[in-house]
Amino acid sequence: GRGVLPRAMAALGAYRCIECNGEATELYRDYQRGVLRISICKSCQKPVDKYIEYDPVIILINAVLCKAQAYRHILFNTKINIHGKLCVFCLLCEAYLRWLQLQDSSQNTDPDDLIRYAKEWDFYRMFGIASLEQTSFFIGIFITLWWMTPEMLKRKSDFILLLKALLLSTYGKLLLIPAVIWEHDYTPLCLAFIKVFVLISNSQAIRVTLNLNRKLPWFAIFFGLILENGVVCLFQKMGWDV
């Protein structure tokens, strides 16, 4: 069915065609009396953004399927501003998973408060480690992209948009919690699939944001993983459980 078309989007501004990534001044035109006409892209002659009529659930399904059109709609043609909160929540999920695995490897039923506080500190430590690992992963991506395509990241706004895209594309980490709650023999395999899905989402976010081919985003992600694993090795040499 038709979704509710946001009135704010009729105002003139910088939008993108979800098909060809061309710029557009408006997504639709309101002719009053409930008559709306979706704008047509001057470059590809297709609707600028068909998703403005779609239900949010359908948009989410298309995003899960990593469709470039859905990513362009979310990143360029909406006013979503949850990337910071989403990042924190995803890091909490990852920290909880690591903390749970740490507790499983060192079972202790002692009710003493010191033991309880130590376990609580372990959770905060895991959150800090997960944050540093993700930061190093993003830094690796930014360094690679800035080195390979400096013309794409000239302005501060370009960095901010790419960071927002990367943060939003980590939503797959939310699946960590149900994977742990419904624990079964295939949980390690599920966690591996979640990791791959997040990396695919990151790649699509980079590709859509900077309008690149498929190879360069994966090269940047590969370098980001190397830097992230370097941080993990550093923590392990310090004797920390990660």
Automatic annotation (TrEMBL):
Keyword terms of this UniProt record: Endoplasmic reticulum, Lipid metabolism, Lipid transport, Membrane, Transmembrane, Transmembrane helix, Transport
Superkingdom in the source lineage: Eukaryota
Membrane topology recorded in Swiss-Prot or TrEMBL: Multi-pass membrane protein
Transmembrane segments: 126-147, 159-182, 216-235
Pfam families the record matches: Arv1
One GO CC term, this protein: cortical endoplasmic reticulum
GO terms of biological process kind: intracellular sterol transport; regulation of plasma membrane sterol distribution; sphingolipid metabolic process; sterol metabolic process
Compartments, record wording: Endoplasmic reticulum membrane
InterPro entries tied to this protein: Arv1
Chief localization: endoplasmic reticulum
Protein family per UniProt: Belongs to the ARV1 family.
Role according to the record: Mediator of sterol homeostasis involved in sterol uptake, trafficking and distribution into membranes.
Protein name, as recorded: Protein ARV
